Protein 1
Amino acid sequence: MASRQVAFEVTADQAEHLDTVLEAAGAEAITWAEAAGSAAVLEPPPGETRLWDWLRVEALFPGDSDIDAVHAAVVEALGGEPSGWGTAEIADQAWERAWLEHFQPQCFGGTLWVVPGGMQPPEPEAINIRLDPGLAFGTGTHPSTALCLEALAAEPPVDETVIDYGCGSGLLAIAALRLGARRVVAVDNDPQALIATRDNARRNGVEDRLEVQEPAANLPVADRVLANILAGILQSLAPRLIAALAVDGRLTLAGLLATQAEAVRAAYQPACRFGPVARADEWVRLDGRRLAV
Protein backbone atom coordinates (compact mmCIF):
# COMPACT_ATOMS: atom_id res chain seq x y z
CA MET A 1 0.00 0.00 0.00
CA ALA A 2 1.27 3.50 -0.83
CA SER A 3 2.12 5.82 2.05
CA ARG A 4 1.00 9.42 2.54
CA GLN A 5 3.45 12.20 3.37
CA VAL A 6 2.65 15.57 4.88
CA ALA A 7 5.14 18.42 4.95
CA PHE A 8 5.03 21.91 6.39
CA GLU A 9 7.20 24.57 8.02
CA VAL A 10 7.13 25.92 11.55
CA THR A 11 9.13 28.34 13.62
CA ALA A 12 11.58 26.88 16.10
CA ASP A 13 9.31 28.03 18.93
CA GLN A 14 6.38 26.09 17.43
CA ALA A 15 8.32 22.85 16.98
CA GLU A 16 8.12 21.71 20.58
CA HIS A 17 5.79 18.71 21.10
CA LEU A 18 5.00 18.36 17.37
CA ASP A 19 6.68 14.94 17.29
CA THR A 20 4.20 13.78 19.94
CA VAL A 21 1.26 15.27 18.02
CA LEU A 22 2.26 13.62 14.73
CA GLU A 23 2.99 10.26 16.34
CA ALA A 24 -0.40 10.34 18.06
CA ALA A 25 -1.95 10.99 14.63
CA GLY A 26 -0.30 7.82 13.30
CA ALA A 27 3.04 9.00 11.82
CA GLU A 28 5.43 6.14 11.07
CA ALA A 29 8.44 8.35 10.43
CA ILE A 30 9.21 12.02 11.12
CA THR A 31 12.17 14.00 9.82
CA TRP A 32 13.25 17.56 10.56
CA ALA A 33 15.42 19.81 8.44
CA GLU A 34 16.38 23.43 8.09
CA ALA A 35 13.74 25.29 6.10
CA ALA A 36 14.91 27.09 2.97
CA GLY A 37 16.10 30.57 3.86
CA SER A 38 16.22 29.81 7.58
CA ALA A 39 18.79 31.62 9.68
CA ALA A 40 20.86 29.48 12.05
CA VAL A 41 20.45 30.03 15.77
CA LEU A 42 23.93 29.04 16.88
CA GLU A 43 23.73 30.22 20.49
CA PRO A 44 20.25 29.45 21.81
CA PRO A 45 19.21 30.67 25.26
CA PRO A 46 19.98 28.40 28.26
CA GLY A 47 17.74 25.36 28.34
CA GLU A 48 16.94 25.49 24.61
CA THR A 49 18.43 23.52 21.72
CA ARG A 50 17.12 25.49 18.73
CA LEU A 51 19.36 25.45 15.68
CA TRP A 52 17.32 27.36 13.09
CA ASP A 53 14.55 29.92 13.23
CA TRP A 54 12.41 27.97 10.71
CA LEU A 55 12.17 24.18 10.43
CA ARG A 56 10.64 21.92 7.80
CA VAL A 57 8.94 18.76 9.04
CA GLU A 58 8.03 15.78 6.88
CA ALA A 59 5.92 12.98 8.32
CA LEU A 60 5.06 9.64 6.70
CA PHE A 61 1.68 7.99 7.37
CA PRO A 62 0.03 4.74 6.24
CA GLY A 63 -1.80 5.10 2.96
CA ASP A 64 -5.23 4.74 4.52
CA SER A 65 -4.67 7.50 7.10
CA ASP A 66 -7.14 10.35 7.49
CA ILE A 67 -4.92 13.23 6.40
CA ASP A 68 -7.67 15.75 7.12
CA ALA A 69 -7.56 14.60 10.75
CA VAL A 70 -3.77 14.94 10.74
CA HIS A 71 -4.11 18.48 9.41
CA ALA A 72 -6.68 19.31 12.09
CA ALA A 73 -4.36 18.00 14.82
CA VAL A 74 -1.48 20.12 13.55
CA VAL A 75 -3.66 23.22 13.29
CA GLU A 76 -4.84 22.71 16.86
CA ALA A 77 -1.27 22.20 18.13
CA LEU A 78 0.01 25.31 16.35
CA GLY A 79 -3.02 27.47 16.99
CA GLY A 80 -3.36 28.18 13.27
CA GLU A 81 -2.65 27.03 9.74
CA PRO A 82 0.88 25.58 9.24
CA SER A 83 3.04 27.35 6.67
CA GLY A 84 3.62 25.59 3.37
CA TRP A 85 1.34 22.63 4.11
CA GLY A 86 1.50 19.96 1.42
CA THR A 87 0.74 16.29 0.95
CA ALA A 88 2.06 13.62 -1.39
CA GLU A 89 1.51 9.94 -2.10
CA ILE A 90 4.66 7.85 -1.77
CA ALA A 91 4.62 4.62 -3.75
CA ASP A 92 5.37 1.54 -1.68
CA GLN A 93 9.15 0.88 -1.61
CA ALA A 94 9.77 3.65 -4.15
CA TRP A 95 12.62 4.90 -1.96
CA GLU A 96 14.38 1.54 -2.24
CA ARG A 97 14.27 1.49 -6.04
CA ALA A 98 15.41 5.11 -6.17
CA TRP A 99 18.57 4.69 -4.14
CA LEU A 100 19.48 1.42 -5.85
CA GLU A 101 19.46 3.20 -9.21
CA HIS A 102 22.32 5.41 -8.02
CA PHE A 103 23.98 3.25 -5.36
CA GLN A 104 26.67 0.94 -6.73
CA PRO A 105 29.61 -0.69 -4.89
CA GLN A 106 32.09 1.98 -3.84
CA CYS A 107 35.66 1.76 -2.55
CA PHE A 108 37.15 4.03 0.10
CA GLY A 109 40.84 4.18 0.94
CA GLY A 110 41.63 1.20 -1.27
CA THR A 111 40.52 -1.37 1.32
CA LEU A 112 36.95 -0.56 2.38
CA TRP A 113 33.95 -1.30 0.16
CA VAL A 114 30.28 -0.37 0.61
CA VAL A 115 28.08 -2.80 -1.29
CA PRO A 116 24.27 -2.64 -1.69
CA GLY A 117 22.42 -5.71 -0.46
CA GLY A 118 21.93 -8.22 -3.26
CA MET A 119 25.01 -7.14 -5.23
CA GLN A 120 28.25 -9.08 -5.44
CA PRO A 121 31.31 -7.36 -3.92
CA PRO A 122 33.91 -6.49 -6.57
CA GLU A 123 36.67 -7.66 -4.19
CA PRO A 124 35.36 -10.51 -2.01
CA GLU A 125 38.50 -10.56 0.13
CA ALA A 126 38.34 -6.85 0.98
CA ILE A 127 36.41 -5.33 3.90
CA ASN A 128 32.90 -5.28 2.47
CA ILE A 129 30.01 -3.53 4.21
CA ARG A 130 26.59 -4.74 3.12
CA LEU A 131 24.20 -1.83 3.30
CA ASP A 132 20.46 -1.31 3.11
CA PRO A 133 19.84 2.23 4.39
CA GLY A 134 16.11 1.68 4.90
CA LEU A 135 14.41 5.00 5.65
CA ALA A 136 17.59 6.52 7.11
CA PHE A 137 20.14 8.61 5.22
CA GLY A 138 23.60 7.25 4.56
CA THR A 139 24.89 5.19 1.64
CA GLY A 140 28.36 6.68 1.20
CA THR A 141 27.36 8.45 -2.00
CA HIS A 142 27.36 11.91 -0.41
CA PRO A 143 30.78 13.62 -0.44
CA SER A 144 30.74 14.28 3.30
CA THR A 145 30.06 10.61 4.08
CA ALA A 146 32.77 9.58 1.64
CA LEU A 147 35.21 11.91 3.40
CA CYS A 148 34.47 10.23 6.73
CA LEU A 149 34.87 6.73 5.30
CA GLU A 150 38.20 7.72 3.78
CA ALA A 151 39.35 9.04 7.17
CA LEU A 152 38.43 5.76 8.86
CA ALA A 153 40.15 3.68 6.19
CA ALA A 154 43.30 5.83 6.39
CA GLU A 155 43.54 5.51 10.19
CA PRO A 156 41.60 2.41 11.26
CA PRO A 157 40.26 2.65 14.83
CA VAL A 158 41.77 -0.66 15.93
CA ASP A 159 40.72 -1.62 19.49
CA GLU A 160 39.19 1.83 20.04
CA THR A 161 35.92 3.06 21.48
CA VAL A 162 34.19 5.18 18.83
CA ILE A 163 31.13 7.46 18.91
CA ASP A 164 29.18 7.97 15.68
CA TYR A 165 27.00 11.01 16.47
CA GLY A 166 24.17 11.40 13.96
CA CYS A 167 24.54 7.82 12.74
CA GLY A 168 21.82 7.77 10.05
CA SER A 169 21.98 4.29 8.48
CA GLY A 170 24.88 3.31 10.75
CA LEU A 171 27.38 3.22 7.90
CA LEU A 172 30.21 4.98 9.75
CA ALA A 173 29.59 2.99 12.92
CA ILE A 174 29.71 -0.29 11.00
CA ALA A 175 32.79 0.80 9.05
CA ALA A 176 34.59 1.59 12.33
CA LEU A 177 33.70 -1.86 13.71
CA ARG A 178 34.73 -3.69 10.53
CA LEU A 179 38.02 -1.77 10.65
CA GLY A 180 38.75 -3.04 14.16
CA ALA A 181 37.00 -0.81 16.70
CA ARG A 182 36.37 -2.54 20.02
CA ARG A 183 33.09 -0.72 20.70
CA VAL A 184 30.95 1.83 18.86
CA VAL A 185 28.16 3.96 20.30
CA ALA A 186 25.80 5.21 17.55
CA VAL A 187 23.60 8.21 18.38
CA ASP A 188 20.65 9.70 16.51
CA ASN A 189 17.44 11.55 17.34
CA ASP A 190 15.50 9.77 14.57
CA PRO A 191 14.03 6.39 15.65
CA GLN A 192 14.17 5.20 12.02
CA ALA A 193 17.91 5.81 12.01
CA LEU A 194 18.38 3.70 15.12
CA ILE A 195 16.32 0.88 13.58
CA ALA A 196 18.30 1.04 10.33
CA THR A 197 21.59 1.09 12.26
CA ARG A 198 20.67 -2.01 14.26
CA ASP A 199 19.51 -3.85 11.13
CA ASN A 200 22.62 -2.99 9.15
CA ALA A 201 24.90 -3.93 12.06
CA ARG A 202 23.17 -7.32 12.26
CA ARG A 203 23.56 -7.78 8.51
CA ASN A 204 27.30 -7.16 8.85
CA GLY A 205 27.82 -9.31 11.93
CA VAL A 206 28.92 -6.52 14.27
CA GLU A 207 25.79 -6.00 16.40
CA ASP A 208 27.49 -7.44 19.51
CA ARG A 209 29.92 -4.50 19.65
CA LEU A 210 27.43 -1.78 18.76
CA GLU A 211 25.25 0.29 21.09
CA VAL A 212 22.56 2.60 19.73
CA GLN A 213 21.10 5.41 21.79
CA GLU A 214 19.19 8.66 21.69
CA PRO A 215 21.00 11.99 22.26
CA ALA A 216 19.81 12.33 25.86
CA ALA A 217 21.75 9.24 26.97
CA ASN A 218 25.18 9.56 28.57
CA LEU A 219 28.14 9.20 26.25
CA PRO A 220 31.23 7.16 27.09
CA VAL A 221 34.73 8.61 26.87
CA ALA A 222 35.80 7.68 23.36
CA ASP A 223 39.09 7.35 21.51
CA ARG A 224 37.40 8.74 18.42
CA VAL A 225 34.28 10.82 17.75
CA LEU A 226 32.67 10.98 14.30
CA ALA A 227 29.97 13.55 13.57
CA ASN A 228 28.69 13.92 10.01
CA ILE A 229 25.75 16.28 10.51
CA LEU A 230 25.33 20.00 9.69
CA ALA A 231 27.55 22.95 10.53
CA GLY A 232 25.12 24.61 12.94
CA ILE A 233 24.51 21.38 14.83
CA LEU A 234 28.24 20.66 15.01
CA GLN A 235 28.79 24.05 16.60
CA SER A 236 26.04 23.58 19.16
CA LEU A 237 27.33 20.09 20.02
CA ALA A 238 30.92 21.20 20.62
CA PRO A 239 30.83 21.09 24.47
CA ARG A 240 29.17 17.66 24.47
CA LEU A 241 31.47 16.07 21.89
CA ILE A 242 34.62 17.56 23.42
CA ALA A 243 33.63 16.17 26.82
CA ALA A 244 33.17 12.72 25.29
CA LEU A 245 36.60 12.69 23.63
CA ALA A 246 39.61 11.27 25.47
CA VAL A 247 42.80 13.30 25.65
CA ASP A 248 44.64 12.80 22.35
CA GLY A 249 41.47 11.25 20.94
CA ARG A 250 40.63 11.86 17.29
CA LEU A 251 37.76 14.04 16.15
CA THR A 252 36.22 13.82 12.67
CA LEU A 253 33.67 16.49 11.73
CA ALA A 254 31.86 16.57 8.38
CA GLY A 255 28.64 17.66 6.75
CA LEU A 256 29.85 21.23 6.34
CA LEU A 257 30.72 23.43 3.41
CA ALA A 258 34.12 25.01 2.95
CA THR A 259 32.70 28.41 3.91
CA GLN A 260 31.53 26.99 7.26
CA ALA A 261 34.75 25.26 8.27
CA GLU A 262 36.32 28.15 10.19
CA ALA A 263 33.27 28.75 12.38
CA VAL A 264 32.99 25.04 13.21
CA ARG A 265 36.71 24.77 13.95
CA ALA A 266 36.50 27.78 16.26
CA ALA A 267 33.73 26.11 18.29
CA TYR A 268 36.12 23.25 19.19
CA GLN A 269 39.20 25.34 19.92
CA PRO A 270 41.29 25.54 22.05
CA ALA A 271 40.24 22.11 23.33
CA CYS A 272 41.12 20.51 19.97
CA ARG A 273 43.99 20.98 17.53
CA PHE A 274 43.13 20.59 13.84
CA GLY A 275 45.11 19.50 10.83
CA PRO A 276 44.61 20.53 7.20
CA VAL A 277 41.07 20.57 5.83
CA ALA A 278 40.09 17.63 3.59
CA ARG A 279 37.84 18.52 0.64
CA ALA A 280 35.41 16.82 -1.72
CA ASP A 281 33.68 19.20 -4.11
CA GLU A 282 32.34 22.04 -1.92
CA TRP A 283 32.24 19.81 1.19
CA VAL A 284 35.01 19.59 3.78
CA ARG A 285 36.12 17.40 6.69
CA LEU A 286 37.86 18.63 9.82
CA ASP A 287 40.30 16.29 11.58
CA GLY A 288 41.31 17.17 15.11
CA ARG A 289 42.81 15.82 18.31
CA ARG A 290 41.77 16.53 21.88
CA LEU A 291 44.35 18.47 23.84
CA ALA A 292 45.04 18.21 27.57
CA VAL A 293 43.67 21.52 28.87
Protein 2
Amino acid sequence: MQNKIAKTQRQMPVQMKNKFINLKNKIRQKSDVPWWYFIVAFFSQTISWIPWKHFIATRYKLIITGKENLKKAKRLRDKYKSGVLFLVKHTGELDIMLVLTGISPFSPLFPMFYLTQHVKYYQTKDFGWRRFVYRQPVFYFYGAHPLQCENPADYSVLNDSEKYKIALKRHMAFLKKNRSVCVFPEGKIPKPGNVGKFFKGISHLLDTKTVVVPVVIKREKEDSLRPIIKLHYGEPLDYDTFTRLNKKEAFFKDKDISEHLSSKVREHIKHTLSKI
Protein backbone atom coordinates (compact mmCIF):
# COMPACT_ATOMS: atom_id res chain seq x y z
CA MET A 1 0.00 0.00 0.00
CA GLN A 2 2.78 2.43 0.91
CA ASN A 3 4.63 1.56 -2.32
CA LYS A 4 1.52 2.43 -4.36
CA ILE A 5 1.16 5.79 -2.55
CA ALA A 6 4.84 6.59 -3.13
CA LYS A 7 4.53 5.66 -6.82
CA THR A 8 1.43 7.85 -7.18
CA GLN A 9 3.23 10.79 -5.57
CA ARG A 10 6.13 10.41 -8.00
CA GLN A 11 3.76 10.30 -10.98
CA MET A 12 1.79 13.40 -9.95
CA PRO A 13 4.61 15.95 -10.57
CA VAL A 14 5.26 14.33 -13.97
CA GLN A 15 1.56 14.45 -14.89
CA MET A 16 1.29 18.07 -13.73
CA LYS A 17 4.37 18.95 -15.75
CA ASN A 18 2.91 17.29 -18.86
CA LYS A 19 -0.39 19.14 -18.37
CA PHE A 20 1.48 22.42 -18.03
CA ILE A 21 3.44 21.73 -21.24
CA ASN A 22 0.23 20.83 -23.10
CA LEU A 23 -1.47 23.99 -21.84
CA LYS A 24 1.56 26.07 -22.85
CA ASN A 25 1.49 24.57 -26.37
CA LYS A 26 -2.23 25.27 -26.70
CA ILE A 27 -1.71 28.90 -25.66
CA ARG A 28 1.10 29.23 -28.21
CA GLN A 29 -1.10 27.81 -30.97
CA LYS A 30 -3.93 30.19 -30.12
CA SER A 31 -1.59 33.18 -29.84
CA ASP A 32 -0.27 32.96 -33.41
CA VAL A 33 -2.35 36.06 -34.20
CA PRO A 34 -3.81 37.44 -30.96
CA TRP A 35 -6.26 40.31 -31.35
CA TRP A 36 -3.92 42.87 -29.76
CA TYR A 37 -1.35 42.43 -32.59
CA PHE A 38 -3.80 44.20 -34.89
CA ILE A 39 -4.71 46.92 -32.36
CA VAL A 40 -1.08 47.74 -31.54
CA ALA A 41 0.01 47.78 -35.20
CA PHE A 42 -2.95 49.96 -36.19
CA PHE A 43 -2.25 52.42 -33.38
CA SER A 44 1.51 52.72 -33.99
CA GLN A 45 1.23 52.97 -37.77
CA THR A 46 -1.63 55.49 -37.61
CA ILE A 47 0.12 57.91 -35.23
CA SER A 48 3.32 57.76 -37.29
CA TRP A 49 1.59 58.08 -40.68
CA ILE A 50 1.09 61.89 -40.70
CA PRO A 51 4.57 62.88 -39.36
CA TRP A 52 6.15 60.35 -41.69
CA LYS A 53 4.37 61.78 -44.76
CA HIS A 54 5.40 65.29 -43.68
CA PHE A 55 9.03 64.18 -43.33
CA ILE A 56 9.01 62.52 -46.76
CA ALA A 57 7.39 65.58 -48.38
CA THR A 58 10.07 67.94 -47.00
CA ARG A 59 13.12 65.68 -47.34
CA TYR A 60 12.34 63.95 -50.64
CA LYS A 61 10.40 64.45 -53.83
CA LEU A 62 7.98 61.52 -53.65
CA ILE A 63 6.25 60.33 -56.82
CA ILE A 64 3.50 57.75 -56.24
CA THR A 65 1.90 55.84 -59.11
CA GLY A 66 -0.43 52.85 -59.36
CA LYS A 67 -2.85 53.87 -56.60
CA GLU A 68 -5.69 52.51 -58.74
CA ASN A 69 -4.13 49.07 -58.24
CA LEU A 70 -4.69 49.39 -54.48
CA LYS A 71 -8.43 49.74 -55.19
CA LYS A 72 -8.28 46.59 -57.33
CA ALA A 73 -6.44 44.77 -54.55
CA LYS A 74 -9.19 45.76 -52.07
CA ARG A 75 -11.89 44.44 -54.42
CA LEU A 76 -10.04 41.14 -54.89
CA ARG A 77 -9.46 40.90 -51.14
CA ASP A 78 -13.21 41.22 -50.52
CA LYS A 79 -14.06 38.83 -53.35
CA TYR A 80 -11.76 36.01 -52.24
CA LYS A 81 -11.88 36.76 -48.49
CA SER A 82 -8.10 36.67 -48.43
CA GLY A 83 -5.16 38.71 -47.23
CA VAL A 84 -2.98 40.93 -49.42
CA LEU A 85 0.71 40.19 -49.81
CA PHE A 86 2.88 43.17 -50.78
CA LEU A 87 6.12 41.99 -52.40
CA VAL A 88 8.44 44.98 -52.30
CA LYS A 89 11.64 45.82 -54.15
CA HIS A 90 14.09 46.53 -51.32
CA THR A 91 16.14 49.75 -51.48
CA GLY A 92 16.80 50.73 -47.85
CA GLU A 93 15.80 50.45 -44.20
CA LEU A 94 13.10 53.13 -44.56
CA ASP A 95 11.18 50.98 -47.05
CA ILE A 96 9.22 49.48 -44.17
CA MET A 97 7.48 52.86 -43.79
CA LEU A 98 7.53 53.92 -47.44
CA VAL A 99 5.15 51.13 -48.47
CA LEU A 100 2.43 52.61 -46.25
CA THR A 101 2.82 56.14 -47.63
CA GLY A 102 0.27 55.66 -50.40
CA ILE A 103 -2.25 53.76 -48.23
CA SER A 104 -4.78 55.56 -46.04
CA PRO A 105 -5.22 54.51 -42.39
CA PHE A 106 -8.96 54.22 -43.23
CA SER A 107 -8.21 51.58 -45.88
CA PRO A 108 -8.92 47.88 -45.16
CA LEU A 109 -5.35 47.28 -46.35
CA PHE A 110 -4.16 49.13 -43.23
CA PRO A 111 -2.33 48.25 -40.98
CA MET A 112 0.43 46.13 -42.43
CA PHE A 113 2.45 43.31 -40.88
CA TYR A 114 6.07 42.81 -41.86
CA LEU A 115 8.40 39.86 -42.23
CA THR A 116 11.83 40.53 -40.68
CA GLN A 117 14.93 38.59 -39.76
CA HIS A 118 15.37 37.33 -36.22
CA VAL A 119 16.07 40.27 -33.89
CA LYS A 120 19.61 39.00 -33.17
CA TYR A 121 20.43 39.56 -36.84
CA TYR A 122 20.30 43.32 -36.18
CA GLN A 123 22.47 43.27 -33.06
CA THR A 124 25.79 43.74 -34.87
CA LYS A 125 28.09 46.74 -35.29
CA ASP A 126 27.02 46.99 -38.93
CA PHE A 127 23.77 48.59 -37.73
CA GLY A 128 25.55 51.13 -35.50
CA TRP A 129 23.30 52.96 -33.01
CA ARG A 130 20.23 51.46 -34.70
CA ARG A 131 20.94 48.10 -33.09
CA PHE A 132 19.74 49.61 -29.78
CA VAL A 133 16.42 50.50 -31.44
CA TYR A 134 15.93 47.25 -33.37
CA ARG A 135 14.57 45.26 -30.43
CA GLN A 136 11.72 42.78 -30.24
CA PRO A 137 9.24 45.10 -28.41
CA VAL A 138 9.86 47.84 -30.99
CA PHE A 139 9.33 45.38 -33.85
CA TYR A 140 6.08 44.04 -32.41
CA PHE A 141 4.87 47.57 -31.66
CA TYR A 142 5.14 48.50 -35.33
CA GLY A 143 3.76 45.18 -36.65
CA ALA A 144 7.11 43.62 -37.63
CA HIS A 145 7.35 39.93 -36.82
CA PRO A 146 10.55 37.92 -37.29
CA LEU A 147 10.95 34.45 -38.71
CA GLN A 148 10.00 31.94 -36.02
CA CYS A 149 13.16 29.90 -35.68
CA GLU A 150 14.86 28.87 -32.45
CA ASN A 151 18.38 29.52 -33.68
CA PRO A 152 18.82 32.84 -35.58
CA ALA A 153 22.18 31.63 -36.88
CA ASP A 154 20.61 28.54 -38.45
CA TYR A 155 20.64 29.61 -42.08
CA SER A 156 19.61 26.10 -43.15
CA VAL A 157 16.07 27.41 -42.61
CA LEU A 158 16.43 29.40 -45.84
CA ASN A 159 17.03 26.22 -47.84
CA ASP A 160 14.83 23.79 -45.94
CA SER A 161 11.25 24.00 -47.21
CA GLU A 162 9.63 22.44 -44.14
CA LYS A 163 11.65 24.55 -41.66
CA TYR A 164 10.79 27.66 -43.65
CA LYS A 165 7.11 26.78 -43.57
CA ILE A 166 7.23 26.64 -39.77
CA ALA A 167 9.26 29.88 -39.61
CA LEU A 168 6.58 31.66 -41.69
CA LYS A 169 3.65 30.21 -39.72
CA ARG A 170 2.65 33.52 -38.12
CA HIS A 171 2.75 35.47 -41.39
CA MET A 172 0.69 32.79 -43.12
CA ALA A 173 -1.83 33.14 -40.27
CA PHE A 174 -1.99 36.92 -40.85
CA LEU A 175 -2.87 36.33 -44.50
CA LYS A 176 -5.50 33.74 -43.61
CA LYS A 177 -7.04 36.35 -41.28
CA ASN A 178 -7.37 38.70 -44.31
CA ARG A 179 -4.58 41.03 -43.15
CA SER A 180 -1.92 42.79 -45.22
CA VAL A 181 1.61 41.43 -45.07
CA CYS A 182 4.71 43.16 -46.45
CA VAL A 183 7.72 41.09 -47.51
CA PHE A 184 11.02 42.05 -49.09
CA PRO A 185 11.44 38.83 -51.12
CA GLU A 186 15.07 39.48 -52.06
CA GLY A 187 15.99 39.19 -48.38
CA LYS A 188 18.64 41.90 -48.75
CA ILE A 189 19.32 45.25 -50.41
CA PRO A 190 20.80 44.57 -53.86
CA LYS A 191 22.71 47.05 -55.99
CA PRO A 192 20.58 49.93 -57.36
CA GLY A 193 18.73 48.88 -60.50
CA ASN A 194 19.14 45.15 -59.84
CA VAL A 195 16.46 42.70 -58.78
CA GLY A 196 17.88 39.87 -56.69
CA LYS A 197 16.55 36.32 -56.55
CA PHE A 198 13.49 35.75 -54.38
CA PHE A 199 13.97 33.42 -51.44
CA LYS A 200 12.22 30.07 -51.92
CA GLY A 201 10.08 30.36 -48.81
CA ILE A 202 7.90 32.99 -50.49
CA SER A 203 5.94 30.15 -52.13
CA HIS A 204 4.56 29.15 -48.69
CA LEU A 205 2.96 32.58 -48.33
CA LEU A 206 1.52 32.31 -51.83
CA ASP A 207 0.02 28.93 -50.90
CA THR A 208 -2.47 30.79 -48.68
CA LYS A 209 -4.23 31.81 -51.95
CA THR A 210 -3.53 35.46 -51.19
CA VAL A 211 -3.80 38.53 -53.43
CA VAL A 212 -0.32 39.68 -54.49
CA VAL A 213 0.65 43.32 -55.06
CA PRO A 214 4.16 43.93 -56.47
CA VAL A 215 5.66 47.20 -55.19
CA VAL A 216 8.62 48.98 -56.75
CA ILE A 217 10.66 51.61 -54.91
CA LYS A 218 13.26 53.48 -56.92
CA ARG A 219 15.63 56.16 -55.67
CA GLU A 220 17.16 58.80 -57.93
CA LYS A 221 19.52 61.79 -57.51
CA GLU A 222 20.71 60.55 -54.09
CA ASP A 223 23.42 63.24 -54.00
CA SER A 224 21.02 66.16 -54.48
CA LEU A 225 19.50 68.24 -51.69
CA ARG A 226 16.10 66.70 -52.38
CA PRO A 227 16.47 63.13 -53.73
CA ILE A 228 13.66 61.56 -55.74
CA ILE A 229 11.79 58.49 -54.53
CA LYS A 230 9.45 56.75 -56.95
CA LEU A 231 6.86 54.42 -55.40
CA HIS A 232 4.77 52.24 -57.71
CA TYR A 233 2.00 49.81 -56.72
CA GLY A 234 1.78 47.16 -59.42
CA GLU A 235 -1.18 45.28 -60.91
CA PRO A 236 -2.54 42.86 -58.28
CA LEU A 237 -2.51 39.15 -59.01
CA ASP A 238 -4.94 36.80 -57.36
CA TYR A 239 -3.96 33.16 -57.00
CA ASP A 240 -7.11 31.69 -58.58
CA THR A 241 -6.99 33.78 -61.77
CA PHE A 242 -3.25 33.20 -62.15
CA THR A 243 -3.76 29.46 -61.71
CA ARG A 244 -6.59 29.35 -64.25
CA LEU A 245 -4.64 31.30 -66.88
CA ASN A 246 -1.47 29.24 -66.54
CA LYS A 247 -3.17 25.86 -66.49
CA LYS A 248 -4.31 26.60 -70.04
CA GLU A 249 -0.68 26.79 -71.11
CA ALA A 250 0.73 23.87 -69.12
CA PHE A 251 -0.02 21.59 -66.21
CA PHE A 252 1.22 22.87 -62.87
CA LYS A 253 1.08 21.26 -59.47
CA ASP A 254 0.11 23.58 -56.61
CA LYS A 255 3.74 23.97 -55.54
CA ASP A 256 4.80 24.76 -59.10
CA ILE A 257 2.08 27.39 -59.37
CA SER A 258 3.32 29.20 -56.26
CA GLU A 259 6.90 29.19 -57.52
CA HIS A 260 5.77 30.27 -61.00
CA LEU A 261 3.74 33.12 -59.51
CA SER A 262 6.77 34.21 -57.50
CA SER A 263 8.82 34.24 -60.71
CA LYS A 264 6.10 36.22 -62.49
CA VAL A 265 6.13 38.88 -59.75
CA ARG A 266 9.92 39.13 -59.95
CA GLU A 267 9.75 39.70 -63.72
CA HIS A 268 7.03 42.30 -63.22
CA ILE A 269 9.17 44.21 -60.70
CA LYS A 270 12.19 44.01 -63.00
CA HIS A 271 10.16 45.34 -65.95
CA THR A 272 8.55 48.14 -63.90
CA LEU A 273 11.94 49.21 -62.50
CA SER A 274 13.19 49.87 -66.03
CA LYS A 275 10.11 51.93 -66.93
CA ILE A 276 9.55 54.29 -63.98
